[in-house]
Amino acid sequence: MYQNLALLAAFAFMYSVVAGGLARTWVNGAVVFTLFGVALGPLGLGWLQLTLDANGIRLIAELTLAMVLFTDAAHADLGVLKRNVRIPERLLMLSLPLTILFGFAVAWLLFDHLSMLEMAILATMLAPTDAALGKAVVSDPSVPAPIREGLNFESGLNDGICVPILFLLLALAEGQRGDHGISILALHLMAEEIGIGVLVAMVVSVPGAWLLKRCSRHQWLEESWLQVPVVAMAVTCFALAQASGGSGFIAAFIGGLVFGWLTKHHPLKHVILERAEGVGDLFSLITWVAFGAVVISKSHSAFDWHILLYSILSLTVIRMLPVFVSLAGLKLALGEKLFIGWFGPRGLASIVFAVIVYNSDLPGVHTISMTVVCTIILSVLLHGLSATPLVAALAQRAKGHAQTAKS
After folding, report:
1. CA 6 – CA 181 distance, rounded (Å)
2. Structure confidence by residue, pLDDT tens digits, 91-134
């Protein structure tokens, strides 16, 4: 235990002092964290011997995602989002269901041993994008604001929307339809997950923002505790919604939006959000190191060409074609549409879904889980290495268009 702790602490220190330099390269944090886990885990030197089980990894991934969703939402520019709401609206209402449908079709072609419901479950698990892996894109001011806010809003809500769909499919696959049929079960799950999530977000964030502002006016806030309020609210939103039968992801994201709006003029807003993001980055480091050391070391030998092909298609055609179709008619250049389609990284949400399905009794659980793991590995590498150069290319293109318009 102490050897693991020493290795993680030393790595966290080393990364913290070079993070600014690495941010200017093609390599993002998730790539470094995962490769460190692989290098020092059982596949590499064998120095890092983590004993996390599936539920332990799920909890870390959930907490990390909750903090990222809350802080990213709190940073959101609601004015830009309101003027360009059609981008996330189409991504969520058109592209998301089309992505699940395309994922199902490809699974039907490649995995003939899976049932129809298992194919739909796999497609749903890989439909939501990851706000944490896409952080370099949604937080970079070089990315045009409509695209940045659109991707941020999409990644904040699509995982929460997919939760009731996944639970519905699992219930059907395990023969738990209930007494009122499929449609009633679907409506019940959707209303429960989303409704409770939104309610919890309001119950936590509204009084939380009010109390924070009031205590700030009385100068009761202590400098050394500024990293705690946002982290505590994010975890409270997530955990309370989950305990109440709702979607913790939706609660965290909506809670962040509400908190950001209520504190938009507060002088300490950006300070406490930056402190909270630091805590989220530390959780992200632990999550991806564990993924590299534990998950990859146990699953890499199970990948075959069917799994690899599906994973590649999931990150390209299955994601990009629905995005391109859904954005038709909007004033976006071809390069911008391709950019939005490409940056649909799979990560923390899919890890959580994989653990949920892994604990089920589905006959095809092994193929489903391994396909999700393979897709996440490819996403970490491909999206992690392509974020910086493609953001720079998009920014240069936007700058060129602006200069042409002026002339």
Report:
1. 54
2. 999 999 999 999 999 999 999 999 999 999 999 999 999 877 77
* CA–CA separation, 248 and 235 (whole Å): 9
**Taking a C-beta distance cutoff of 8 angstroms, is the pair 197, 249 a contact?**
yes
- Domain of residue 395: give its range: 2-406
Q: At what angle do helices 96-110 and 305-315 cross, to 10 degrees?
A: 160
- Residue 139: CB partners within 8 Å, gap ≥ 6? 72, 75, 148
What's the mean pLDDT in 362-373?
91
- Within 10 A of 232 (CB to CB), how many other CB atoms are there? 13
How many CB atoms within 10 Å of residue 169?
Answer: 24
Q: Give the separation between CA 105 and CA 122, rounded to whole angstroms.
A: 11
Distance between CA atoms of residues 197 and 142, nearest Å: 32
For residue 190, give the H/E element and its range: helix 181-217
Q: What is the pLDDT of residues 209-235, one digit of tens each?
A: 999 999 988 889 888 888 899 999 999
pTM above 0.85, yes or no: yes
300 pLDDT above the threshold of 80: no
How many independent structural domains does the chain possess? 1
Tokens of 151: 């991707």
| CA–CA separation, 403 and 401 (whole Å) | 6
- What tokens appear for 10 in the block? 């030393």
Q: Residue 218, class by beta-carbon neighbours within 10 Å (0-12 exposed, 13-18 middle, 19+ buried)?
A: exposed
**How far, in whole angstroms, is CA 24 from its chain's centroid?**
22
Three-state SS annotation for 131-189? CCCCHHHHCCCCCCHHHHHHHHHHHHHHHHHHHHHHHHHHHHHCCCCCCCHHHHHHHHH
Binned at pLDDT 50, 70 and 90, residue 403 comes out as: low
Specify the CATH number for the domain of residue 122.
1.20.1530.20
> Cα 124–128–130 angle (5° rounding)?
145
With vertex at residue 43, the alpha carbon angle to CA 42 and CA 49, rounded to the nearest 5 degrees, is 20
